[in-house]
Protein: CoA ester lyase
Amino acid sequence: MSDLLHNARSFLFVPAHQTDRLHKALKSAADMVIADWEDAVAPSDKAAARQALLGTVQTLSATLRARVLVRINAAQTAWHEGDIQVLKQLVAAGIAGVVVPKAETVSVLHAIAQTAGPACALIPLVETVAGMDALASLSAAPQVARLAFGHLDFQVDAGMQCADDEGELLPTRMAIVMASRRANLAPAIDGVTVDTKDSTHMDADCQRALRMGFGAKLCIHPAQIAVAHQVFSPTEAAVAHASAVVQAMELAQGGVCVVNGKMVDAPVLHLAQRTLQRHVWAQQRP
Structure:
């Protein structure tokens, strides 16, 4: 898995058959761009969308190709096998990997990895109850880079009617975060915010995701990218505190010490080190 995919904070969806949208998305600040063959493409356009994406990718630089993922159609659909065959060509051309919708069985992930090859990173999109039941096996499958939560489809599958704050989904989100940690994956990717005009709503969703342990957000509009980056990148205050913690622990030669009136020990040091690593990476992104 690339360093970019591991640390990415934003994953922007675009319809794969609208090549102008893909070019615009890659010119945006989005860390990763997901060219969508699933929900964004009508059944009659599926085959054309495959060829459109393949043709467009071949015109991109290697750097841009490395920012592209493709969301294929689910294994339960008639388009899945055709998608995988073209995915193999896209991975050979240098795209980062694949988002697997309705991920429920590890056998599907194995089949995709076998066909697409070892360079294909897999992001299972957990959006059904069956997918939640299979979290342990999905997260441990070869070539899985990160888990993503498709909370809208999950609500439908589970028969839920969530309030605006989606408090009913807190246990589900936490299960995905914990599964990612147990499998030593990069932090999970939270689902979309459908309100593209309300940055306050987007900020609140990202803040909740950050507090719970997610490391990124699925986005459906370029305007959402800046909010995601601001939230998932450490603040100046957090960086200053982390630097103070590291310095204090060095002076204490690894022993317990106090910073700003609070005890600092090994777990606090590890958190500070991760904060500084995230800050360095965010500063390096254009």
